[in-house]
Specification:
By secondary structure, the protein is mainly beta. It has 2 helices and 13 strands, in the order ββββαβββββββββα. Strands 1-2-10-7-12-5 form a 6-stranded antiparallel sheet, with no helix packed on it. A 5-stranded antiparallel sheet has the order 9-8-11-6-13, with no helix packed on it. Strands 3-4 form a two-stranded antiparallel sheet. The longest helix has 6 residues.
Length: 181
């Protein structure tokens, strides 16, 4: 497994080997020893999986109560995955990193506590998997506006073609959002 820093310190791009033959492909999606060597948590609370169609944008989500670190990857399809630094004390506050993840790349993204997370489906469909370090907590859940000009994410799809849930469509702007210290 290769581990690379992104433009946001602490957000890591992990690349696992993908073994292909005429039957298909195999990759190791999780190995505790390798993840520990990369500095990731030793314990996980929950595994999640979502299936979405093209142009669906999920996020930008985070929890201030029971905050979660996330290890994300795509089982099939392609997404643009985004992490936003929401730690007010960070010199990177409000900045984001965007990484394309696909079911064929073997890439994963580690998003530590203190960051918001979202993704946009670029393929016809995508299966998105992620491990989290704490349980879902509705009381601590927040959504940052996916289209906040202050954050300035360059989504590769026209805004009018992006499909968001009602909740995600009501995300708070960065300057009004409840964020991390």
């Amino acid at each position: 497994m290769k581990v690379a820093e992104t433009s946001l310190p602490g957000v890591l791009l992990l690349t696992t080997a993908v073994y292909r033959d005429d039957r298909g492909a195999f990759l190791e999606s999780f190995n505790q020893r390798r993840m520990s060597e990369a500095g990731l948590p030793a314990q996980w609370a929950q595994d999640n999986f979502s299936f979405s169609k093209k142009n669906v944008l999920r996020g930008i989500h985070y929890q201030t109560i029971q905050p979660q670190g996330k290890l994300v990857w795509v089982a099939h399809g392609t997404v643009l995955d985004v992490a936003v630094d929401l730690r007010r004390s960070s010199p990177y506050f409000g900045r984001h990193v965007a990484v394309e993840l696909s079911g064929t790349s073997g890439n994963m993204l580690w998003i530590p506590i203190g960051f918001g997370h979202g993704f946009l489906v670029l393929s016809e469909t995508a299966g998105f998997a992620y491990k989290v370090t704490d349980y879902y907590c509705a009381a601590g859940e927040h959504t940052l506006a996916w289209n906040d000009p202050e954050v300035g994410i360059a989504w590769p799809v026209a805004a009018e073609d992006i499909l968001v849930s009602e909740k995600d469509g009501k995300g708070a702007r960065l300057r009004e959002a409840e964020v991390f210290p």
